[in-house]
Amino acid sequence: MRSFITINIIIMCLIQLSLETSIWTTFDDIIVFGDSYSDNGNVYALTNKSYPQSPPNYKGRFSNGKVWIEYLAMKYQANLIDKAFGYATSDNGLVPGHFQWDNTNYSVPGIKQQIDFFINSHPNQNYDKTLFVMGYFGNDYRYTNNGIDPSVVISSLIYSASQLVNNLEPRIILFPTIPLLPNSTQNSTFTNHNKVLKNSLDSFSAEHPDVEVFLYPFDEVLLKFRKSADLKEKLNITNIFNNCTSYADASNVCETPENYMLWDEVHLTTKLYEYIANDVYDRLICL
Ligand SMILES: *[C@@H]1O[C@H](CO)[C@@H](O)[C@H](O)[C@H]1NC(C)=O
Ligand SMILES: *[C@@H]1O[C@H](CO)[C@@H](O)[C@H](O)[C@H]1NC(C)=O
Ligand SMILES: *[C@@H]1O[C@H](CO)[C@@H](O)[C@H](O)[C@H]1NC(C)=O
Ligand SMILES: *[C@@H]1O[C@H](CO)[C@@H](O)[C@H](O)[C@H]1NC(C)=O
Ligand SMILES: *[C@@H]1O[C@H](CO)[C@@H](O)[C@H](O)[C@H]1NC(C)=O
Ligand SMILES: *[C@@H]1O[C@H](CO)[C@@H](O)[C@H](O)[C@H]1NC(C)=O
């Protein structure tokens, strides 16, 4: 079984013109810090299972099914340690992450706070078989209406990643770029963010040769999907412009979510999350 899987991986990577398979073919654990794209029920628990309304959301996800990181963990048969909260920013000291629900103002830990807490509560463990994920998808820009400079946000994310490196000695950290969605008023901000992220990770990576720093081009992959009639047909996605529901108020839901790319204004449907997870996996095993 094991060698059968290995042979399959070698063939897959050859198809992708990569000469060898990577060492990232198995993980025991995946640890994600982040926001609603990766939250598997943390905001839901915080609100005593009242928000995001489920159904139509799937068991507290901001989607109609599992989110990308859950599919990735399933692919790897890895244990998922999910520290992500919907509405989280890079750091509450920079932009406080919070939301209003049912007359209550809930505040959520930012990525920096999630990481600080994790480091303080998990000393001296071995993380050789762990994939760390910095699942940041742009909330600082949403709260400030694009009023914060990407270099500030990225410095904050890199600082948190350095804390991880200095305290936990991770072998690999994955950073996704932010996808550009139809009708978004944040295209140029996100494009800029993705560029600065790439440049900053080049230096971060050079400073930490023992850590594999993997920039996942979420934006390019989603754009390619949107432009490809074949890929859309394969997933039976016919609507890439409209949101099926709204994250603020999920009382209206479209008739056929299985044909939508967008679940709500900012989140993807579970089909797309599964597609992304498969793509992340295919790239990781051939790095
Ligand atoms: C949580 O929700 C349940 C069911 O709606 C309710 O019985 C319980 O009192 C709530 N708990 C808190 C702490 O609000
Ligand atoms: C909610 O709390 C956050 C801090 O967590 C604060 O910045 C925000 O102004 C508060 N909003 C309201 C409406 O009280
Ligand atoms: C944002 O960029 C995406 C991808 O290039 C494009 O499909 C969309 O129309 C753009 N939105 C705006 C408002 O420019
Ligand atoms: C694609 O979606 C349509 C509309 O929901 C449905 O009728 C059809 O059976 C789906 N096709 C496949 C191959 O799943
Ligand atoms: C994008 O704009 C179209 C046309 O104005 C609208 O029907 C659709 O709901 C919008 N989609 C999103 C995600 O806001
Ligand atoms: C789609 O998003 C818009 C906000 O951009 C919202 O007003 C609308 O209600 C949403 N559509 C549905 C079906 O919920």
UniProtKB/TrEMBL annotation:
Which is an annotated GO molecular function term of this record? hydrolase activity, acting on ester bonds
Q: Which residues form the signal peptide?
A: 1-20
Asked if Hydrolase is a keyword of the record, the answer is no
Please spell out the taxonomic lineage of the organism that makes this protein. Answer: Eukaryota, Fungi, Fungi incertae sedis, Mucoromycota, Glomeromycotina
Protein family (similarity comment): Belongs to the 'GDSL' lipolytic enzyme family.
UniProt name for this protein: Carbohydrate esterase family 16 protein
Identify the InterPro entries for this entry: GDSL, SGNH_hydro_sf
Superkingdom is Eukaryota
Q: Which UniProt keywords apply?
A: Signal
Transmembrane intervals: none
Asked whether the keyword RNA-binding is assigned, the reply is: no
